[in-house]
Every structure is written in C-alpha cells, then in structure tokens.
Amino acid sequence: MGISPKQFEQLQSRVRGAARRSSPSTPEVAPTAPRSHEIILGVDPSLRGTGYGVIRAAKPQPATLAHGTIACPTDWERSRCLAKIHATLREVIRAHQPTVCIVEGLFFAQNLQTAIIMGEARGAALVAMAEAGLEIFEVAPRKVKQAIVGYGAAQKLAVAKMVQRMLQLAELPKPDAADALALALTHAQTAGRYSVEGPKRV
Amino acid sequence: MGISPKQFEQLQSRVRGAARRSSPSTPEVAPTAPRSHEIILGVDPSLRGTGYGVIRAAKPQPATLAHGTIACPTDWERSRCLAKIHATLREVIRAHQPTVCIVEGLFFAQNLQTAIIMGEARGAALVAMAEAGLEIFEVAPRKVKQAIVGYGAAQKLAVAKMVQRMLQLAELPKPDAADALALALTHAQTAGRYSVEGPKRV
C-alpha cells in the first residue's frame, strides 16, 4: 500500500468530507475514526459451520479479500471442531492481516446446552483474534440486517443477495460466509458515522 | 517412573483385584485400561478464574505436578481473558505433557448470556487441549463430588479438603484449583473401573 503522506491527508479529508455530507451532525472527530484502508474480518461462529469474510473498506466500494465456511462434519468431536475454527481463523488473519474483527453478537439460543456449544465456538474464534492483538467488536444480528437490507428481520437470502451486490461477487455467497461478510460490511458502513450506541468491544 | 514389566503386571492385577472387590460384576478387561503412569490435566473453565490441576496417577497415591487459577481482572475485555486461558493452558500442557484432559462437564447456568460466556471460556480451554492432540473427557460436577467426597451435593470446601488429603498438599488448594484437581483425581479413580456410563468424550 505505497501511499505518500500527502495522499493520505487528501484521503483523510475526503473521508471526513463524505462523513459530513452523509450525516450533518457528525462531529469533526468521530469516536471511531474512519479508516479507508481498513481491513475488516467478520466472523459468524458456529460449531459445524463458522462463516468468515475479509473485506478492504476501499472507496468507492469495498473489496472482498476472502470468504468461506469452516465446515466440521457432525461425527467430529467438539474439541476437534474448535481446534479447526481456531487454526483456520489464525491462518486467515495471518494471510490477510485485518486491523479489526467483528463477531456476531447477542443472539438467542434455544436452550442452555445450545448456548454453551455456541459459546465454545465463539471462544475458539475469539482466541484466534485476541492472540493476534486485534480489536474485536460485537454486532447484533438485527443491526447487521438493518444496516445491510434496511430491515432488522430480513431473511438470510435477502442478506446474501445484498452482500453479493455490495461486493459485486460473481456468485451468491454461501449463507454462513454471507453473514460474515455482512458483519464486515456493517462495520465498514458504521465506523465512519457518529453513533450514540457505538459498537460493543468484546 | 522406572517400573519393570513384572511390577507393572503386579500393579495391574492389584488394580483389577481392587475393582473386583468394589464391584463384583466388573469384567477382566475394563473398557478404559488402567494406566498407572498416566498424567492427567483437570480443568474447570470460567472466564475470570479457570482452575487447572495436573496429577500423575502414581501408586500408592497420586502426585501433584501443578495446580493454579488463571485469574483475569473484571476490567479485562472478554477476549483478553480467553487468550490468557488458552495461552496458560498451552504452557501447562507443554510443561507437564499430560496424556489425558478432564473438563468439568454439564452444569447449570443462570441464563443464556451466562451460558454463552461460560461456553466461551470452555472453548478457549478446549482449543489448547485439542491442538495438543490430547484425549478430552467431560465429567459432571455431581459425579466429581460423588467420587471425591462420596456425596453428589457436597460443598466446595469439603471437596477442597478431601483433595488436600488425597494429594497430601501442605495447604488447602484454592477453590478453582481444588475443583480442577478433583476432576483429575476422579479420572484417576474411575479410569480403571468398569462403568456402564463411561466418561463422555468431547
């Protein structure tokens, strides 16, 4: 990313200008300053199918660096799945060097046992991010849908279609990967805007 | 652990004999064969205070190799705690080379949010064990109390005192570490015995 200090200043002022236009009440210094070069890792953790997506928050539109699903067969022991989630995300982080991570936040589990298993998958994912020293934020699924589709109760397919369009992907991303890309896009959209209810740091 | 094949046979027959006395229907070959040289890591995961204990299942009595609590201040972000749990357990495993891990199993959480956070801590711990290629088993707290104190609803202090006695520790172990040592001791006790309801592999 060869960029001169002058180019960087120009970019910064352009980004600030854009933020002002889109939201007149935005203060000069936003709580999370917009970084147009930011590389964002979104992760939707689950034991058998963790989705991940890496985007570069470039202008005029974000670029997709990687996306996929960490699939674990149902006959694998839980601990083996967790080790794979951790190892795969560590490799994704090594390869794409994200600067910030977004994890799907508060959700509803059917029962305590399900909640614990979902928590285990989140734990494996969070360890990979935290040991790389990355900033981690949680975003609630409803907020992601609101940001991407404009409707908090949107269907999974609607999210995937909008993600495909926003990132100009040749194919419709698989549901788990689409959710992860949506998380990253949500952060890219909201990071430059002033928000009373900022993202929750994990 | 210098032990001749003859001594090993004697030990094995003694263990089998003991098992037969306590449970007349025990078959000659137990499903999990007794291994007197086994090094057992017990872990009681929790976000702010994960207990761990390593014992060698030696005769006539087990030896304590290490025990402690992975403490994380309440002002630490969750992800930082998870990274510390993972890193500390990885170091404990490297230092003591356990052959099997026992994790506190099914338990009750007050609500879904608590269950997810408990699950995250479990996930961080399980990743450290699984990436070392170790066998992992879950044991329910009630079974640990039953095995150590002989009473499934025993108080924490009763467990700690019995652990101290069984391992001839100079001081009473801290509650989290005592629970972890109790998990390891439970495995050491039950591994040689026939059980219809064997330990649950995670």
Task: Summarize the model shown.
The structure is a homodimer of 202-residue chains. The first copy, chain A, has 202 residues and is of the alpha/beta class. Helices cover 46% and strands 17% of the residues of chain A.
Q: What attributes does this structure have?
A:
6-stranded mixed sheet; Nucleotidyltransferase, domain 5; alpha/beta; 6 helices; homodimer
Query: Biggest protein-protein interface?
Result: A-B, 32 and 32 residues
Strand content of chain A: 15-25%
Assign an overall shape of chain A.
Answer: globular
How far apart, in Å, are the first and last alpha carbons of chain A? Answer: 29 Å
What do these coordinates show?
Two copies of one chain form a homodimer. The first copy, chain A, contains six helices and six strands; from the N terminus they run αβββαβαβαααβ. Chain A is an alpha/beta fold. Chain A has one domain: 2-Layer Sandwich (Nucleotidyltransferase, domain 5). In chain A, strands 3-2-1-4-5-6 form a six-stranded mixed beta sheet. The longest helix of chain A is centred in the middle third of the chain and has 20 residues, at 112-131. Chain A is globular and about 45 Å long. The interface between A and B is medium-sized, with 32 and 32 residues.
What topology emerges from the helices and strands here?
2 copies of one chain form a homodimer.
Chain A: H1 5-22, E1 39-44, E2 49-56, E3 63-71, H2 78-96, E4 100-104, H3 112-131, E5 135-139, H4 141-148, H5 156-166, H6 175-190, E6 200-201
Parallel strand pairs in A: 1-4, 4-5
Antiparallel strand pairs in A: 1-2, 2-3, 5-6
Helix pairs in contact in A: 2-3, 4-6, 5-6
